[in-house]
Design a protein that fits this description.
Radius of gyration: 41 Å
Oligomer: single chain
Distance between the termini: 100 Å
Largest sheet: 37 strands, antiparallel
Shape: rod-shaped
Length: about 525
């Protein structure tokens, strides 16, 4: 036989249940339209409450359509329009509920929704630890927090600390980007996402990757660490990247790399920054420039490297400041400062530049190297130009003039145009032996080389020349004024470009001031 009591006797119902409950931890019934109890059907100590059921337990209030209350076990099972209110701020909804009064655990199932201030969590399976105020799901869930929508297979929400922890297939959707991660912690007030595993942030502007750090979704700033990179118009990498999306600035600490694929250039260093809006970049601390060619790479080191965009964003000036040294298998050199202009693929070297090309040493006040199809095409030696090559031990072929242009084919100089005050000393060969020493002077000179040896000289305007036996020429006359063999300063590999050796004082034989180097350099710096 089933007993039925009308809900018009709420006080009677309260007294009925209070008599069976002991202590503050017991679940309290506040209201129900109907109460049913039948030991044969429902079991011992089970009471069924139907219609507008209301419970309270400590700081929580619970509502449902139907509930099964297990008095001795201090638990209940409920179905229909589940609604739990915790501390008047957190609201939890669902279709089914298992609640354990002794532990404060609420298992909510089907169409689950948790609302706490501006946070809404939805899932099909949610466990809520009411005592510790922790909600967690393990079969896909979604949290909406203003502009951010976060989904994952597993998740924990901590209302006390306003944080959520996500695990497995994490996706954060924002109007400006989408974030994909394995593990993520998110603060619902500050809107900061802590990166705790491999994470991609994809937007129209770029793709960001990091394995630790944080992303402030409210202010669009980030700290990216562990294999971090920002891949947009150029690729920026580093151990630690401070990234400001609004201003497009990435500041990098340790192992910075900036890849300019359009110009086949990589800039590296242990500190630097990149502005993706203006495409300006700067790096210091073991700064390294790598110019990548089809069959080789030029490695260049300086105290500071700077990339400056031109009117066409694809074109740039790359500037190297102080103690510049570079190495490529067929060419090495050093100077104080260098500029690479991507418009005509020209490298300009300033302030005591020295270039070694195979067996040749080239010096001038300024050297310009031109490339064509990624190989050296010609080189200009501007003011106090001097080319030296060692014929054999102690004997040097020498060409000197105000300015020169060397033409290159297959990485070897095959013709040299000397413009102004041309002088030369070279050793004509008969098979393997020098047959004498030739000294010549004129205003202009064209020198042809074959297999790195002088094969012909065209002298123009007031030429003078003399061929003499080597033994009859004093040693001091076998050197043109300003001669200095600088092989010991030549980088032998790419590691040596990081070791700087100071040059000795060199008397180059002319008044340096007439070439106005200071003016040239100030233009370069600007």
């Amino acid at each position: 036989m089933i007993r039925t009591f009308k809900s018009t006797l709420p006080y009677f119902l309260c007294l009925f249940f209070i008599s069976a409950l002991h202590g503050q931890k017991k679940i309290n019934v506040k209201h129900a339209d109907f109460l049913k109890g039948n030991k044969a059907i429902f079991g011992k100590d089970v009471n069924v409450l139907i219609g507008n059921v209301k419970f309270t337990h400590e700081t929580a209030t619970m509502f449902c359509d139907t509930a099964y209350l297990y008095e001795k076990e201090n638990k209940l099972n409920a179905v229909g329009n589940i609604h739990i209110i915790q501390n008047d701020t957190l609201h939890l909804y669902g279709k089914k509920l298992n609640y354990y009064g002794n532990t404060g655990l609420a298992e909510v199932r089907e169409n689950v929704k948790l609302v706490n201030k501006d946070v809404t969590l939805t899932t099909e399976y949610l466990d809520y630890d009411r005592k510790n105020n922790i909600a967690y799901y393990y079969n896909n869930g979604k949290i909406v927090n203003k502009d951010n929508i976060l989904t994952s297979k597993k998740g924990y929400y901590y209302p006390n600390t306003n944080t959520a922890f996500y695990k497995d297939s994490v996706v954060v959707t924002n109007p400006k980007y989408t974030m994909f991660s394995d593990t993520l912690t998110y603060h619902t007030v500050t809107k900061v996402a802590s990166i705790e595993g491999p994470t991609f942030i994809i937007s129209e502007e770029n793709t960001i990757y990091a394995e630790s750090g944080f992303y402030d979704t409210q202010n669009d700033v980030a700290l990216l660490q562990h294999n971090a990179y920002v891949d947009g118009k150029q690729l920026l990498k580093g151990d630690s990247i401070h990234y400001d999306r609004k201003n497009g600035i990435g500041e990098v600490f340790n192992n910075m790399e900036l890849h300019d694929t359009a110009n086949h250039v990589i800039i590296a260093g242990n500190y630097g920054f990149y502005n993706e809006l203006t495409q300006d970049a700067l790096t210091t601390e073991d700064a390294l420039l790598m110019q990548i060619y089809n069959n080789d790479t030029l490695f260049l080191h300086a105290d500071t490297l700077e990339a400056v965009p031109l009117e066409n964003p694809e074109e740039k000036l790359i500037k190297a400041y102080r103690k510049v040294q570079y190495y490529r298998s067929d060419m090495q050199g050093r100077c104080d400062s260098m500029v690479f202009d991507s418009r005509d693929t020209t490298n300009s070297f300033y302030h005591e530049p020295i270039m070694w090309s195979l067996g040749n040493q080239l010096t001038a006040d300024e050297i310009k190297m031109y490339t064509k199809n990624e190989v050296m095409d010609k080189v200009d030696l501007i003011n106090r130009a001097f080319i030296i090559s060692e014929e054999d031990s102690g004997r040097y072929n020498q060409i000197k003039g105000k300015s020169m242009t060397g033409f290159v084919k297959d990485n070897e100089i095959y013709k040299i145009d000397v413009d102004g005050n041309a002088q030369s000393i070279y050793y004509p060969m008969d098979k393997e032996n020098a047959i004498g020493v030739n000294k010549a002077e004129c205003s202009n000179m064209i020198i042809y080389l074959k297999e790195r040896m002088v094969s012909k000289i065209n002298m123009q305007v007031s030429p003078t020349g003399k061929m003499s036996p080597i033994i009859l020429v004093p040693d001091e006359e076998l050197r043109l004024q300003g001669f200095y063999w600088l092989e010991m300063f030549r980088p032998k590999n790419k590691k040596e470009i990081f070791t700087w050796k100071e040059l000795p004082e060199i008397d180059r034989g002319e008044d340096r001031s007439e070439y106005n180097l200071d003016e040239t350099y100030s233009e370069f710096e600007n």
